[in-house]
TrEMBL record:
GO terms for cellular component: membrane. The keyword Transmembrane helix applies. Pfam families: Peptidase_A24 (PF01478). This is Prepilin type IV endopeptidase peptidase domain-containing protein. The keyword Oxidoreductase does not apply. Keywords: Membrane, Transmembrane, Transmembrane helix. One of its GO terms (molecular function) is aspartic-type endopeptidase activity. It comes from the Bacteria. The chain crosses the membrane at residues 7-24, 36-54, 61-82, 102-121, 142-163. It comes from Tateyamaria omphalii. Residues 14-114 form the Prepilin type IV endopeptidase peptidase domain.
Length: 165
């Protein structure tokens, strides 16, 4: 993997709880909160200069803006929720450009697993463990993407910590 194992290890303890909080809030409320994504961005902004050479840090930080603009356009087109766009933008600086293909394959696998788990839980007595979650009552194309996006970033960082450059 292109992301350094040491960089991933520094980010892991701060980001994994945020990633799982994103999954939870999207399941329970069908939203990804602004304080969560702002915290993710702040963690990178504060720690990044100590973990990357300054020019690499600026490029990684630029990915946040690039992905945010793309997410705003996709949200305006109705292809993506605003919270999903914000999360992707906040997560972008943590991903090494050389790992994009790996990340996309990982996201595909996590998305399939999350969709299957959500659908099974929604249609079985498992739903009774959290009967008031907003994601249970969504019909049609509404799916809590944070349930897949958060774990994808967490797993990516774990893999980078184990197999990073």
């Amino acid at each position: 993997m292109a992301l350094s194992a040491s960089v991933a290890l520094w980010f892991l303890p701060l980001l994994v709880p945020l990633c799982f909080y994103v999954a939870y809030t999207d399941l329970a409320e069908m939203r990804i909160t602004n304080p969560t994504v702002l915290t993710m961005a702040a963690v990178f902004a504060v720690m990044g200069p100590f973990l990357y050479p300054f020019d690499a840090y600026l490029w990684q930080l630029a990915y946040l803006g690039i992905v945010l603009v793309a997410g705003i356009i996709l949200n305006a087109a109705g292809a993506m929720g605003a919270g999903d766009a914000k999360f992707l933008a906040a997560a972008a600086p943590y991903v090494a450009l050389g790992d994009i293909r790996t990340l996309m394959a990982l996201f595909a696998a996590v998305l399939l697993a999350a969709y299957a788990a959500h659908t099974i839980a929604k249609r079985t007595p498992l739903r009774n463990f959290a009967p008031n979650w907003a994601s249970w009552s969504q019909e049609g194309r509404k799916f809590p993407m944070g349930f897949a996006l958060g774990p994808t970033l967490a797993i990516y960082l774990c893999l980078a910590a184990l197999y990073g450059s």
